[in-house]
Amino acid sequence: MKHYHIVTYGCQMNVHESEKIAGILSELGYESTERMEDADIVVFNTCCIRENAENHAYGNIGMLKKLKAARKDMLIAVGGCLTQQKGKAEELHKKFSYVDIIFGTHNLVKLKEYILKKQTQKKVVIDIEEKDGEICEDIEPFRTSYPNAWINITYGCNNFCSYCIVPYVRGRERSRRSSDVINEAKALIDAGYKEITLLGQNVNSYANGSDDLSFPQLLKEIAEIKGKFRLRFMTSHPKDFSEELAEVIAENPKICNCVHLPVQSGSDAVLKAMNRKYTAEDYLKKVEILKKHVPDCALSTDIIVGFPGETDADFEKTVELVKKVNFSSAFTFVYSKRTGTAAAEMPDQVDEVTCKRRITELIDLVNLQTRVQSAKYVGKTVEILCEDYDVKKDLYLGRDEYGRMAYFKGNRDLLGEFVNVKITEANGISLYGDIEE
Ligand code: SAH
Ligand code: SF4
Ligand code: F3S
Fold first, then answer.
1. Residue (of 398, 333, 404, 401) closest to 369 by Cα position
2. Rounded to the nearest whole angstrom, what is the distance from the C-alpha of residue 164 to the centroid of ligand 1?
3. Is-contact 366 329, C-beta < 8 A?
4. Which end of the chain has fewer beta carbons closer than 10 Å to its terminal beta carbon, N or C?
5. Residue 393: domain span
6. Residue 167 and residue 268 in one domain
7. Which residue minimizes the CA distance to atom 5 of ligand 2?
8. Are residues 401 and 352 in the same domain?
C-alpha cells in the first residue's frame, strides 16, 4: 500500500482543499499516514497571506531534503497560494531542486495527471495556470473533520483590499451553482455530519450578477434541510452584509448566532487606504442591525495593526471600536507587506517596534474581553457539539453555537453528538464542564 502525507497551511479554504487533495490521492490508491517518513508522496498545501506563512512552508520543505535523499522514490509536491504568486514556482524550484511537482491554485484538479507524468519523467513538473480555475464538481473530498464539513460556495475574490494577496493567487470570484451546494449539503447531513460551514472569501456576494439564489436565500434553503445540524458560514465582508441576512439568521435556528465580520481597523483613514469600502460608523451600523434581529449573536473579527501610514491616533480608534463592539474573539495580525499588492507601494511603512507595541496592547484588550465573557458561562448549561477528543487531557471537546470551546469528560464515544454541558470553570478562552445526561 502506498501512503500520502499532506501538510496544510493557511485558512479553512485550504484545509478543505487538502481534503480534496486527499480525495485525489485516495483515488490513485494512496492511504493517509501521520508519519512523513512513511509517505510515498508528501504534498505541501501552502499559504502566502503573510510572510510568516510563507517562511513556515519554506522551512518545512527545506527539512525534507535529508529524507528525500534517503528515499529517492518519495514524491514531493508543492501546491497552494504560495506557488501561484508571480515567479514563485521557479524560485521554489531553484531553492528546492528535489521537489518533484509544483502546481498552482487553479489546477489542483490536474494533480493526478502530474503524479502520473512525474512517474515517467525525471524532470520536475511545474504547472501554474494564470487563468481562473473552472469550478470542478468532480473531486470527491476525503473528509477528515467529522462531524464538521466544509462546503465551498465561492472561489476567488474581487475586492482587492490593498494589503491582500488573495485576489492575485485565487483569481476572480466564481460561485458554484446553488443546486450543487444544496445537494452536497443534503448528502453530508444524510451521511451524519452535524455541522456545515459554507466557505468563501466574501460569502455575501455569492452569485452576484447572476439569476441564481442570493446568499441569504441559499442559507435559508440549506437551513430547511431535515435533520439536526448547525449551519455556519465565513467570511462576511461588512460592506455586503445585509439586513436580509440578519433576518435569515434570526428566523432559522439551525443557522448559528455567530458571525465572523472582519473589521480590519477602526480608523476611517486606514479603512480607506485599505480599500475596504466602509467606515467605522458603517461597520457599527451593521453590527447594530445584526444585533437588532439576533440580540445574542456572537461576533468575531480580524484586525490588522501597522498598516502603512497608521498613526497612534488611528490605532486608538481601533482600540475604541474593539471596546465598543466587545467581540467574542478576534484574530489580530501585524501587517505583512505582500509584493504585488497596492499597499506594498505605499510610503510610511510602520516600524517593527511600533507594530509590536500595538499588537500587544490589542491582544491584551481582546483577551480581557474574552475572559470576561467566558467567566459569565460558569454555572450555565450549554449545548455542545462534541467535535474531538483531547488525548493529553483525556477530555472530549466541542463548541456551542456561539463558537465557544468547552472540554468535558465522557465515558462513551461522544464524537458527533450534541450534549448538554454544565460549565464549572472558565480558563481564558476555554471552558470546562460536566455532561448533564
Ligand atoms: N476574505 C476574508 C479573509 C481573508 S484573509 C476577509 O475579507 O475577511 C484573513 C485575514 O488575514 C484578513 O481578514 C486580514 O485580517 C488578514 N490579512 C490579509 N492580508 C494580510 C496582510 N498582508 N498582513 C496582515 N494580515 C493580513
Ligand atoms: Fe483579501 Fe479583502 Fe478579498 Fe478578504 S475581501 S480575501 S481581505 S481582498
Ligand atoms: Fe487562504 Fe492563505 Fe490562500 S489564507 S486563500 S491559503 S493565501
1. 404
2. 6
3. yes
4. C
5. 381-435
6. yes
7. 159
8. no
Is there a single domain that holds both residue 153 and residue 9? no
Whether 426 maps to a domain, the answer reads yes
Ligand closest to Cα of 167 equals 2
**CATH code for the domain of 305:** 3.80.30.20
Among the listed residues 273, 253, 175, 254, the one whose alpha carbon sits nearest the alpha carbon of residue 215: 175
d(CA 420, ligand 3 centre) in Å: 35
Mean pLDDT for each consecutive 10-residue tract of the chain (437 residues)?
A: 96 96 97 96 98 97 95 96 96 97 94 94 93 90 97 97 98 97 98 98 94 97 98 96 97 98 98 98 98 98 98 98 97 97 95 98 96 95 97 96 96 95 93 94
Q: Is 237 in the pocket of ligand 2 (CB under 6 A)?
A: yes
Identify the residue whose C-alpha is closest to ligand 1 atom 4. Answer: 201
Q: Are residues 17 and 107 both part of a single domain? A: yes
Q: Which three cell numbers stand for residue 391?
A: 488525548
304 CB less than 6 Å from ligand 1? Answer: yes
What residues contact 328, with CB distance under 8 A and at least 6 apart?
A: 258, 298, 299, 300, 370, 373, 402, 403, 404
Note whether residue 133 is domain-resident: no
Number of domains into which the chain is organized? 3
